[in-house]
Amino acid sequence: MNLYEFSQEVKPNLPGYNTEKDDNSVLKLKDLRKTRLTLAHLNKLRIANDVRKFEHEKKLKSVAKQYQPAPDAAAAGAPAM
Q1: pLDDT digit string (tens) for 26-80?
Q2: pLDDT of residue 30
Q3: Which of 35, 81, 14 is nearest to 1 (CA)?
Q4: How far is CA 27 from the centre of its chain?
Q5: Which pLDDT score, from 0 to 100, does residue 40 have?
Q6: Radius of gyration of the chain, Cα coordinates, nearest whole angstrom
Q7: What are the distances in angstroms from CA 73 to CA 19, 67, 70, 76?
Q8: DSSP class of residue 12?
């Protein structure tokens, strides 16, 4: 979960994320049947999965950049001691 998902000030309706108005199915204790999945539901799930995958790849690139080995001091032009 990302930090901006907690804040309502910063673009709460990003594509690929569910909003409260999207959830119109209220289940009760006596409901025995599963809700019917429509193509719209499947499309929202696919978009959410794509967003999650993109964010994960972005995070992996960021972590790889943070933990890459430091450049060699001689290659950086530092004088030898």
Answers
A1: 778 887 887 788 898 899 899 999 999 999 999 999 999 999 988 775 566 656 5
A2: 84
A3: 14
A4: 27
A5: 86
A6: 23
A7: 51, 17, 9, 5
A8: S
- Across the range 16-29, mean pLDDT stands at 70
Dist. CA 42–CA 17, nearest whole Å: 13
Query: Dihedral of the CA atoms 52, 53, 57, 62 (nearest 10)?
Result: 0
Query: Rounded to two decimals, what is the model's pTM?
Result: 0.51
CA–CA gap between residue 29 and residue 40 (Å, rounded): 26
d(CA 11, CA 23): 19
Q: What angle do CA 71, 72, 78 make, to 5 degrees?
A: 110
For residue 14, which of 38, 42, 40, 44 has the smallest C-alpha distance?
Answer: 44
Q: Which amino acid is at 16?
A: G
